[in-house]
């Protein structure tokens, strides 16, 4: 059942495909990290080509001012010659007229479709290019202040009493000059971490953070609408004060030094092999523009040397009102929001910012860049959110280049010719973009960084090959000793198509149907008994951070089978491009898209602030129309009801044209296809060691010559259990309900009544059942099945080591039930939008199901719609089939074993993974329950071993089902009674292990004292280090390894406790609550000490193992640092823990702040059905004696009742003394034979995969 994240998630997530006018899922994540530096120019070039969209251009006329404006009071207060009575006077303003900001240019307004003039033109029909415009969200408000400051506000009530504000600065690492590489990210740190007004938000239940990317820097605050306590003052002014403080950052030298150390530590932390792979991919993909040389975290040699003027120059150049956009989403009144925005930001002026730029040389160079940015770049041509780049687009014949509408003095190589110098030259001095004059006479501005520069990495990515006449590919091979598998990435870049009318919306839906069909083929049909690849995904997503849409094939495989994997994946794409989708696929995925839209519409204003804001930001960035969920559903139904198979297959041909066209004689897209392969650096003369670009191109060429045939539709069942089969089961095993039973002191719950907040019962066959209604996630549900045991049961019950874990994965990889094949079952799950994930941890086998609660698998539209069964019923059918009719398959076991082998081998090449394994092996005394499963152990597991181990856990009387969702509780209980109550009580009893006496969960091994220190070295070409501090801790419910409890120890230590305190501490949730608060406080202390005060790391983390059934556990502090500072960072962590326990104990302020964080997190998570299912799991389980209904119903009261004395005594229950600590440091060492070449390395971007952003 590998239909968890790959099959149906693609409908709701991967299939977003940039269709933000439809989907609430943002495209391609938040990007890499960095900011942009656009620096000033003294003149304002006018571009007549922009006249057709002049309403989007920011001009001085619109701002009621000009560079030649005379002095007036309005200049003093607005900076642009505009008068604004509501704007307060500038702080420190002078009585002299300020010069225009050197980098401010006429540019597209960042509001894009929401820019009021453009929005009005769309709605009024006066825009001739948009004849059938999509509707705008009726509640969204947008505007521009007189100083050019733009904002968007969306009222939203989920959760009530809170809001989020995000300030987006449209400068990222792609805007940095050669000596500024990394300064955007450092400035982000300095601006927010140095804000005193941000600090005022501490202790209010607010969260703040920031991140930097290629194209922007974003600062945000998520806050309650009213301050906690008696004052209940509005929090919006405080939040906007903090964000405005960012715009006026002081850039103090002391703060710069602190953040410099944090950034250098972060540089070490992010430099994993996964990040380095992403560097290679992005450098190749974007070799024709600035992105290849402007990774967000920058260059270490530069970061180490910047002074206050450097940081301030960057800040004052880019943090100006016309270069930002403020988003606010939340439970606020529009009039109050707009008035507060005007009050807080109306006084800002670009002129005052420009007057504080002191580095004249950088100002001049940045002026040239600023001219180039508003020239022939995607940033000026399409969206101010985009980086200032051009792209080698790969598009079909007749597709217009979006840069053709922008006139600039740019040659074919993308260099901007400065008019003042060009006028002094003869025409013959410049030929084909090459300047023949002396090198001292610089006449071309190399905006796309195609020339070599002193700080560049010594790498060449621009080798190109002609696959067939006119068909170009840019190949690159990356080899590294830390890589375990072969990965292959094939790209084509295309312009982002703004989705503003019905025609563009229909095309987007057609692409989504195609992508869904192909992904399911790859994941379902493409998985043979012996699959060539271990992972494969094909997608196209709009990327604001890259300024284009990226069509990508990403695939991993075993190195020995790389050619086979390349052939298989390319063949599947060619099959779609040449033959399209089948009628059955068209119906299936169109129905899924409609159901997805219907679910979002049902959520309405219950969509969370963060989800709404992510959707809003991506939609605005790419110029799409921002619609409400209800509008999206109506438009989607209208479009899908008339969408034809021909339209979908035309979209398929377009999506795949860059691959189908690589075969000689096939129609193709024009432009460059990019291919990147990442392989292990093998020793000797192995195939991987000799793999080069020519071989890669040959393999791609060969894959394109394989003949492909159209696929045939699979007969997919509409139900797995027929009405007749269910009726027979009821007769054979008459189902009954029994009362719920608990071990926390709660009385039994009745078997015939609904209770709140959840209904807890048992079926007659012994299955424990918990049901909770959660309407916050409309039409969605989550079901969790738990079978206690896990890897602990392997040892207790005498199974072969690893059998349960490998077997659980084999069940995930399989999915054949009774008479149905795996493919039929997986497509059934796809039709019903079900995601399944099966896992085995140290103490339980868990199965998680995410599903719609409405009728799915429907066919037809409108009055002709035929309803399928509900997603809830579909899930219960699957659970029933797993328990009684699951078919175990050798090929599924093979895939499971390969997954575990790969994971273990990869662990040995990961500094963090190998170091964590080392210290866990030490504290667990080598107990294999807590360690990764090695290759020999995996290989020894047979299908019979796996089957016997897993099925022995699926005895009805041992199982617990917890379900939460937007459903009627009685209806779900009736379905559970029929589908699961009829499972025979002795089902799977033949697998049950016979024991003379029942065994219980054992505790973790007793920690051997005294503790010890461990060192580890891992070969890697780049220097990195990670340090750990570990020790004994209770489990999640306060049980220690020796069987004693936190409550007992606290009671013994506090002899003078009042009766009230004794009563509080006797509550079953006491230890759980205390440990949650201790974790929060410990993390805060580590941050303030190790990062802020000692400046040794970017981050340090305190965590607990949190076992629920096994007695005891461990705490683990993880800190990344440079190799030189690793020991000091480790000692600082130990010092922090010791101070927390002795010299600097928990203060009342610490406690109150932690309470707010824990309670706010709890409140937020209560809106998710997954959290409810997790809370209910174990409530009726005897092996978790303190977890019962009280752990949910009394959560707030217990947290609020906690005292500092409670937490100090809880800390005493942990092994925090020096003699009890285990410590470790893992460091990289240069591989033998590797010589430091002295090249300044570009640190990779922060983001796992193309999309993660550097958090500040």
What topology, given as strand order, has the largest sheet?
3-4-8-5-7-6-33
Low-confidence stretches: 3-95, 407-443, 1236-1252
Mean pLDDT over the residues: 85
Tell me the major beta sheet.
7 strands, mixed
| Class by alpha and beta content | alpha+beta
Q: Tell how many strands the DSSP assignment holds.
A: 33
N-C termini distance: 39 Å
Shape: globular
Radius of gyration: 31 Å
Helix count from the secondary structure assignment: 42
Relative strand content: 15-25%
Helix content: 25-40%
Description:
The protein is globular, with a radius of gyration of 31 Å. Helix 36 crosses helix 42. The longest helix is centred in the middle third of the chain and has 24 residues. A hairpin with a 2-residue loop joins strand 10 and strand 11. By secondary structure, it is an alpha+beta fold. The N terminus is likely disordered. 38% of the residues lie in helices and 15% in strands. It is built from 42 helices and 33 strands. The strands form 8 sheets. A 7-stranded mixed sheet has the order 3-4-8-5-7-6-33, sandwiched between helices. Strands 19-20-21-27-22-25-24 form a 7-stranded mixed sheet. Strands 13-14-18-15-17-16 form a 6-stranded mixed sheet, with helices on both faces.
Task: Please describe the topology of this protein.
Blueprint: H1 4-12, E1 57-58, H2 73-78, E2 107-108, H3 116-124, E3 141-144, E4 150-155, E5 162-169, H4 183-193, H5 196-199, E6 207-212, E7 217-224, H6 236-247, H7 253-270, H8 273-285, H9 300-303, H10 308-318, E8 324-330, H11 334-345, H12 350-355, H13 360-373, H14 378-381, E9 415-417, H15 419-422, E10 430-431, E11 434-435, E12 444-446, E13 465-468, E14 471-480, E15 486-494, H16 502-525, E16 533-543, E17 548-557, H17 562-579, H18 583-603, H19 609-621, H20 629-642, H21 645-660, E18 672-680, H22 687-690, H23 693-704, H24 723-732, E19 737-739, E20 759-763, E21 768-773, E22 780-788, H25 790-796, H26 803-813, E23 816-817, H27 822-831, E24 835-840, E25 844-852, H28 871-885, E26 886-887, H29 890-907, H30 911-923, H31 935-940, H32 943-953, E27 960-965, H33 969-979, E28 1013-1019, E29 1025-1033, H34 1046-1053, H35 1059-1065, H36 1070-1093, E30 1100-1104, E31 1113-1121, H37 1126-1141, H38 1148-1165, H39 1169-1176, H40 1190-1193, H41 1195-1201, H42 1204-1211, E32 1222-1229, E33 1254-1255
Parallel strand pairs: 4-8, 14-18, 21-27, 28-32
Antiparallel strand pairs: 1-2, 3-4, 5-7, 5-8, 6-7, 6-33, 9-12, 10-11, 13-14, 15-17, 15-18, 16-17, 19-20, 20-21, 22-25, 22-27, 23-26, 24-25, 29-31, 29-32, 30-31
Helix pairs in contact: 1-16, 4-7, 4-10, 6-11, 16-17, 16-18, 16-20, 16-21, 17-21, 17-23, 18-20, 26-29, 26-32, 28-33, 36-37, 36-38, 36-42
């Amino acid at each position: 059942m590998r239909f968890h994240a790959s099959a149906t998630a693609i409908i709701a997530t991967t299939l977003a495909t940039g269709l933000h006018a439809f989907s609430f899922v943002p495209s391609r994540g938040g990007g890499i990290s960095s900011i942009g530096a656009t620096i000033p120019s003294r003149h304002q070039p006018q571009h007549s080509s922009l006249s057709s969209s002049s309403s989007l251009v920011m001009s001085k006329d619109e701002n009621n001012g000009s560079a030649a404006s005379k002095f007036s009071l309005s200049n003093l207060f607005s900076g642009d010659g505009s008068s604004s009575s509501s704007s307060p006077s500038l702080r420190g303003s002078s009585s002299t007229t300020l010069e225009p900001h050197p980098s401010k240019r006429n540019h597209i307004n960042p509001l894009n479709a929401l820019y009021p003039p453009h929005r009005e033109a769309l709605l009024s029909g006066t825009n001739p290019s948009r004849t059938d415009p999509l509707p705008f969200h009726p509640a969204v408000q947008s505007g521009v202040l007189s100083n050019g400051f733009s904002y968007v506000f969306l009222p939203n009530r989920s959760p009530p009493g809170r809001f989020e504000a995000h300030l987006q600065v449209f400068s990222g690492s792609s805007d940095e000059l050669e000596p500024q590489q990394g300064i955007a990210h450092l400035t982000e740190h300095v601006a927010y971490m140095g804000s005193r007004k941000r600090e005022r938000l501490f202790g209010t239940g607010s969260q703040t953070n920031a991140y930097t990317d290629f194209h922007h820097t974003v600062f945000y605050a998520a806050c309650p609408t009213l301050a906690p306590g008696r004052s209940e003052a509005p929090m919006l002014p405080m939040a906007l004060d903090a964000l405005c403080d960012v715009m006026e950052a002081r850039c103090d030298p002391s703060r710069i030094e602190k953040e410099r150390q944090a950034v250098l530590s972060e540089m070490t932390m992010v430099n994993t092999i996964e990040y380095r792979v992403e560097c290679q991919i992005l450098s190749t993909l974007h070799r024709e523009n600035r992105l290849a040389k402007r990774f967000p975290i920058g260059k270490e040699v530069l970061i180490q040397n910047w002074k206050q003027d450097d940081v301030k120059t960057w800040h004052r150049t880019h943090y100006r009102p016309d270069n930002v956009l403020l988003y606010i989403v939340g439970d606020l009144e529009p009039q109050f929001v707009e008035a507060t925005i005007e009050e807080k930001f109306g006084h800002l002026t670009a002129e005052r910012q420009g007057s504080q730029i002191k580095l004249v040389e950088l100002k001049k160079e940045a002026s040239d860049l600023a001219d180039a940015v508003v020239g022939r770049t995607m940033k000026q041509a399409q969206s101010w959110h985009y980086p200032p780049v051009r792209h080698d687009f790969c598009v079909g014949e007749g597709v217009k280049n979006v840069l053709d509408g922008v006139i600039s003095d740019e040659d074919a190589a993308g260099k901007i010719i400065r008019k003042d110098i060009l006028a002094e030259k003869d025409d013959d001095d410049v030929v084909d973009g090459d300047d023949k004059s002396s090198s001292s006479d610089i006449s071309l501005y190399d905006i796309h960084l195609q020339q070599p520069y002193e700080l560049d990495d010594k790498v060449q990515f621009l080798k190109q090959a002609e696959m067939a006449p006119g068909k170009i590919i840019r190949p690159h091979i990356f080899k590294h000793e830390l890589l375990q598998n072969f990965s292959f990435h094939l790209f084509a870049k295309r312009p982002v198509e703004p989705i503003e009318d019905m025609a563009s919306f229909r095309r987007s839906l057609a692409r989504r149907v195609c992508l869904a069909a192909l992904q399911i083929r790859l994941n379902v049909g493409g998985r043979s008994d012996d699959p060539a690849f271990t992972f494969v995904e094909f997608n196209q997503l709009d990327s604001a951070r890259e300024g284009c849409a990226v069509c990508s094939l990403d695939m991993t495989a075993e190195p020995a089978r790389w050619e086979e994997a390349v052939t298989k994946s390319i063949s599947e794409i060619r099959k779609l491009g040449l033959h399209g989708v089948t009628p059955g696929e068209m119906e299936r995925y169109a129905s899924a898209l409609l159901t997805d839209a219907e679910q979002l519409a049902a959520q309405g204003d219950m969509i969370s602030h963060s989800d709404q804001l992510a959707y809003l930001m991506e939609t605005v960035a790419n110029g799409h129309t921002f619609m409400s969920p209800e509008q999206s559903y109506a438009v989607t139904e209208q479009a899908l009801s008339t969408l034809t198979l021909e339209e979908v297959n035309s979209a398929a041909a377009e999506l795949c044209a860059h691959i189908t066209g690589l075969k000689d004689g096939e129609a193709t897209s024009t432009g460059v296809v990019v291919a990147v392969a990442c392989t292990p650096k093998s020793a000797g003369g192995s195939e991987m060691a000799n793999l080069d670009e020519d071989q890669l191109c040959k393999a791609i060429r060969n894959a394109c010559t394989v003949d492909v045939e159209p696929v045939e539709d699979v007969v997919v069942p509409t139900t797995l259990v027929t009405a007749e089969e269910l009726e027979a089961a009821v007769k054979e095993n008459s189902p009954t309900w029994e009362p719920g039973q608990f071990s926390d002191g709660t009385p039994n719950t009745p078997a015939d009544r609904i209770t709140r907040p959840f209904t807890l019962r048992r079926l007659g066959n012994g299955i424990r059942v918990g049901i909770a209604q959660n309407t916050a996630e409309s039409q969605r549900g989550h079901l969790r099945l738990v079978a206690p045991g896990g890897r602990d049961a392997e040892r207790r019950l005498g199974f072969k080591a690893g059998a349960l874990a490998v077997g659980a994965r084999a069940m995930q990889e399989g999915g054949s039930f009774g008479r149905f094949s795996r493919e039929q079952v997986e497509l059934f799950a796809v039709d019903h939008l079900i995601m399944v994930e099966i896992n085995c941890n140290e103490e339980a086998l868990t199965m998680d199901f995410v599903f719609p609660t409405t009728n799915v698998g429907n066919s037809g539209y409108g009055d002709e719609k035929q309803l399928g069964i509900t997603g809830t019923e579909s899930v219960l059918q699957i659970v029933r089939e797993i328990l009684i009719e699951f078919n175990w398959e050798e090929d599924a076991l093979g895939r499971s074993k390969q997954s575990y082998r790969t994971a273990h081998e990869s662990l040995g090449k990961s500094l963090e993974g190998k170091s964590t394994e080392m210290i866990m092996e030490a504290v667990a005394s080598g107990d294999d329950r807590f360690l990764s499963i090695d290759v020999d152990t995996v290989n020894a597991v047979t299908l019979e071993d796996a089957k016997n181990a897993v099925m022995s856990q699926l005895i009805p009387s041992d199982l617990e089902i917890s379900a939460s969702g937007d459903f009627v509780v009685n209806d779900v209980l009736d379905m559970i009674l029929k589908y699961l109550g009829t499972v025979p009580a002795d089902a799977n009893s033949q697998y049950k292990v016979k024991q003379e006496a029942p065994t219980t969960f054992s505790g973790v091994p007793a920690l051997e004292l005294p503790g010890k220190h461990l060192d580890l070295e891992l070969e890697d070409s780049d220097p990195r280090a990670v340090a750990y501090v570990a020790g004994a801790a209770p489990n999640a419910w306060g049980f220690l390894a020796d069987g004693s409890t936190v409550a007992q120890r606290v009671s013994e230590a506090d002899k003078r406790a009042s009766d009230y305190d004794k009563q509080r501490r006797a509550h079953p949730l006491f230890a759980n609550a205390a440990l949650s608060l201790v974790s929060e406080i410990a993390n805060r202390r580590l941050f303030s000490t190790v990062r802020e005060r000692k400046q040794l790391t970017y981050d340090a983390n305190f965590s607990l193992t949190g076992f629920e059934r096994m007695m005891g556990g461990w705490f683990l502090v993880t800190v990344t640092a440079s190799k030189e500072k690793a020991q000091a960072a480790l000692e600082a962590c130990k010092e922090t823990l010791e101070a927390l326990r002795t010299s600097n104990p928990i203060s009342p302020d610490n406690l109150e702040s932690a309470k707010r964080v824990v309670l706010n997190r709890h409140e937020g998570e209560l809106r998710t059905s997954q959290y409810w299912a997790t809370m209910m799991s174990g409530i009726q389980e005897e092996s978790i004696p303190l977890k019962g209904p009280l752990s949910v119903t009394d959560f707030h009261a217990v947290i609020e009742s906690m005292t500092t004395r409670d937490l100090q005594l809880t800390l005493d229950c942990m092994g925090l003394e020096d003699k009890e600590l285990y410590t470790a440091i893992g460091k990289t060492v240069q591989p033998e034979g590797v010589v430091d070449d002295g090249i300044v390395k570009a640190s990779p971007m922060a983001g796992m995969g193309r999309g993660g952003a550097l958090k500040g």
